[in-house]
Amino acid sequence: MGLLFVEPSAIGLGTGRLLYRDVLRRAAGLGLRRLLIDADPHAAGFYRAMGAVEHPGAAPEGLVRFEARPAPLADWARAWTGGVPAVHVGNVAEFNAQFADASLDPGQRAAHDYACLAAFYSPRPAALVLPRAVSPGWVALVGRQLGWDREVEVYDGLAERGPGLSDAVAARPALARRLTEGGRPLVPWGLTGPYARLAGLPWRPDGLRYESKSAAHALFGRILAGGGHPGITLPAQWRARTRRAAVRLLAARSRAGESTVLKSEHGVGGSGTTVVTPGEVKAAGGARAVLRRLPRGPLLLEEYVHGPADARLPRDLTYDGFVDGAGRPHEVGAAVMDVADGGYRGATVGPGVVPGRLAGPLLAFGAAVGRQLAAAGYRGWFDVDFVTDAAGRLAPTEANLRLTGPSAAFMVAARLDELRGAGHLVRIADRVELGARLPDAQVEALCADLVRGCAALGAVFVPAIPTGAFDPEPWLGVLVAARGARALDAAEALVRERARAAGDGFGPDFDPDPHPAPRPGP
Prior knowledge:
Blueprint: H1 15-29, E1 35-39, H2 44-49, E2 53-54, E3 64-68, H3 75-81, E4 86-89, H4 92-97, H5 109-114, E5 125-129, H6 136-145, E6 153-155, H7 165-170, H8 173-180, E7 186-188, H9 193-199, H10 213-225, E8 237-240, H11 243-255, E9 260-263, E10 273-276, H12 278-284, H13 287-292, E11 299-303, E12 316-323, E13 329-340, E14 343-349, H14 356-375, E15 380-388, E16 394-400, H15 405-420, E17 425-433, H16 440-456, E18 460-465, E19 475-482, H17 485-500
Parallel strand pairs: 4-5, 4-7, 5-6
Antiparallel strand pairs: 1-3, 2-3, 8-11, 9-10, 9-11, 12-13, 12-15, 13-14, 14-17, 15-16, 17-19, 18-19
Helix pairs in contact: 11-12, 16-17
């Protein structure tokens, strides 16, 4: 490409960005996978910002050569919503509440924050439906970073208290008609009875039975009994019918020198999951004292899987896929998760993230789970989580029949590959600590600064969860993307450093304004 110009009076209005993205779309549509750009030196910064990479080959005299790799929207992403913008329903709290698990926060505050991930339920939303109010500036910034080429409708503040987002929408007939009668696909965080009524879908509660950790474990066992998965091992699991039985089993394992994973049936993000070593049982005064600290309700005990001897192998991984409306399973991909003390903190997706020796067994087993879910009548997104054992084998630990944090990273990777060229690594970090409680205006200023700082590193910054910034212990959820691990790590480090320093300029009398009042939809 040698001729792409904008009238001087139109420079800075986004015209060049639209033209360049149109070039990549056309090239991808023609089947081209490599595009060389000979740029005027004054335009070099523009092409770097658009994601083109400086090419080591010789350029014509006086020009700078760049390379881009045009890519169509990934096949799985096109199949997910039919390749059209979708209505994203952030019903995280509603999904969790249907299981009534004692390990989950009854107030569902964190779930309302995580509903902001509705911005990433597909590569291009038509509308966001959110329980809590969000800043229009956040939506606008995400739209700029991900090239949303039309205004996205936002209906927020619909269920500030309680989990009933779908019922809150249904109680507004005009809004319900607008969301459901326009022919646009609806994408929820997860399936629930109220959502099914809103969307006009049949509802079978048993369709989510493999969200149960014991049911998923039994499913994994049936798959492995059929053979064909030599790189997969299944940890032993026991369901304690009473607390007394759990005490006896935990004590026996502790006496034998074995660590144990204690799980609730439906914890999310690590809630309800505790790893207990023999030393911790002894220090607590026995197994009964350990269990007394845990939430009531059904309890699972699982064999602890020791990590890989090869430090180059990741410990925690996940497979993402979905079953479409016709019952066809689709593979999305594999990711490496960041897990600490049993709690999920984020994930990284992209080419080469999962080592080849693990990718093959992981993808094959995840696909087998997808086929079983499809045969059982499940329709929607799912993932399978794994840990790597001492021998380098993969042990499946649970299935999630809903969207997840890694799914948001996959969606952003698909969108950036389409906009900027193939090869993006994307990392989602759930909780980046802030140095101070920040109202919306300060959050937007910080995010604008992070956009510029990451761009200087050759990376892309996208704020994922802004609503935790005014919590007593303030935090942000973020996404960063780059084409190499070094740039990705540098971008994450920059984000964490500047987030921690966010309160440095505030004096002792700083009194931030609270978030604006909710703006209910029609």
